[in-house]
Amino acid sequence: MRAERAQDAEPPPGTDATAGAEPPGRPEDAATRGGLDGLPRQGGRGEGAGRTPRAVVMLLHGGREAGLEAPPPWNLPGLRMRPFGRSIARATRGRDVRLTSVRYTHRGWNGAREDPLRDTSRALDAVAEEYGEVPVILVGHSMGGRAALRAAGHPLVRGVVGLAPWCPPGDPVTQLSGRSVVLLHSDRDHTTSPLASQTTATRARRAGARTCSVTIRGSDHAMLRRAPEWHRLTAELVTGLLGHGPLPPAVGTALALPPGTTGPEGNLDLDRITRGRP
């Protein structure tokens, strides 16, 4: 993965990346917030405590290949996930779905340390301790997508939505067996590889996962171009994987492919699967 330098810079005021975000320390309005919060380090109750949710959606933002420093308070990769959180919150309103995010201890993956994976695993353990056996959907961007895929073997995880995920060729996929995995990627991503997402989906299917990949043409790694479509599709996938609404028909068909399928059936194009839809 090339260094995500653009994601680590403070965004200019008024850009899409910061729309609706608040400076550190200023709480969002509860109605807008929709239950989105950060787990205190590795876990915790946060807003909505006292009621066991029926499901949890956990957001994992991007980062760097290496970096032992903590993410800064004004962290653009984290802010980038806010619109996804709002879309998911709207789509799951009234469903007793807890929306939360993982706060990383360190900024980078850091080789064999795999720091974001450790953070995600501890957050999942905290959810299990707090709420018991609730189904969890992991939604991760870039490095967070890699952490989501690697942590998916946790007993609570039912599915993964990877947003331009970082998928090194040697990463294991056996932990994805029995899970539903949908990987979204722009064909113009120059930071992580869209071909690697397709290959990972195929490898995971062979390992017993229900998988597909979706190409979002003309977008970018930061998901700013065609942003509404990223947000809308992610929310639709989350509700579909939780059984709270229908999946796009082509996605449902791809997830049902036999494990040995290696052809293009599992590699979808957003423009084709949404053609004719409102």
UniProtKB/TrEMBL annotation:
Domain AB hydrolase-1 residues, every copy: 58-237
Ranges where the record places region Disordered: 1-51, 256-278
Compositional bias per record (Gly residues), positions renumbered to this chain: 35-49
SUPFAM superfamilies in UniProt: alpha/beta-Hydrolases
Comp. bias regions, Basic and acidic residues: 269-278
Record-linked Pfam families: Abhydrolase_6 (PF12697)
InterPro entries reported for this sequence: AB_hydrolase_1, AB_hydrolase_fold
Domain of life: Bacteria
Protein name per Swiss-Prot or TrEMBL: Lysophospholipase
Organism: Streptomyces albidoflavus
